[in-house]
Amino acid sequence: MTLPCEFIVRSVLPAMRALVALELRDSYQLKQEEIASLLGITQSAVSQYVRRVRGRAVEIEEIGEVQGLVKNLAQGLAEASLTTRQVMQGYCEACQIIREKRVLCRLHKRLDPTFDVENCDLCLL
Length: 125
What we know:
The protein is mostly helical. Helices cover 66% and strands 0% of the residues. Helix 1 packs across helix 2. The protein is globular, with a radius of gyration of 15 Å. The two termini are 18 Å apart.
């Protein structure tokens, strides 16, 4: 049995970090080392995110609300205008949106075809 929070840690968090890393690179022309420092991850992880080797298990870049959060997080990180708590809140808000949109349900069904997605509401609790 895979819990929704496990999907978040394995799939959603890396996807969010990838989007923020790309935004920091593209909009603020930051180097991988700088992005890694801002995100609290390694430069090699950033490299994998920007090459799209990592953080691609779930498709969240098309969710408008998530894109807005990514832009806000990247701006706040680049300008050092967000507290650690605000960054955490941004990630948590994105997670909540993704759960409400039932993105994890599609991933869960893909990983476990026997899972009854239609009658599951765990992500909505």
